[in-house]
Description:
This protein is mainly alpha-helical. It has one domain (26-164, 190-211). Helix content is 60%, strand content 3%. The chain has seven helices and two strands, in the order H-E-H-H-H-H-H-H-E. The chain has helices at residues 14-34, 47-74, 94-108, 113-142, 144-152, 173-184, 189-201; strands at residues 38-40, 209-211. The chain has a two-stranded parallel ribbon with strand order 1-2. The chain is elongated.
Amino acid sequence: MSDATTHPDRLNLGPVQRRRRLALLLAAIAYFLALPFIHSIGAGEGPLHEGLEVFGMVLISCAIVGRSWCTLYIGGRKRHEIVASGPYSISRNPLYVFSLLAIFGIGLQTGSLVLGLLAAAIGFAIFYPVIRREEEMLASAFGAEFTTYCARVPRFGPNFSLWRDMDTIVVHPRRLRQTFLEATLFLLAMPICEAIEILQDGGYLTPLLHLP
Length: 212
């Protein structure tokens, strides 16, 4: 246990997380406002379009389960100690990794690989400075302990050869429930994208940009 518990003000991640949530919200609003004017070239023309949508659903589902899994380990502990077991033994930022998978999956709900990659790139552009700022704060709070952890575990990874676990973990049900419910919001992309595609195919919306 680090002496960071005596200096909780040194590890106040709240403002950083609030800015991240605001940036994601604004990006999501812009994304869904732009979707009616974007259309997949292969929409309704074979298995590739449908396959990308299904793959996107799988990624979103994995992200929901994965984020909940990560919360089992880090919920309520991040301010007080370096979590280095379970998913955090193979990646320093597994929550962000799973979030990027979900964002990529959301982009694939249009049936466009280009839009999926673009959505993931925007998500990464939002997450990366947040991750760097969090790491600076963790390094300041935990010192050599965090530096050693960073030297062993990749920022994204995952490096499965590093896997280590604990015999028991303390679960915070409220945090787990909150993370799960927030992650399920990713599922809204499926009906929204499907509705937009139906309106486009019916001639009610006119796409201005066609992407593969």
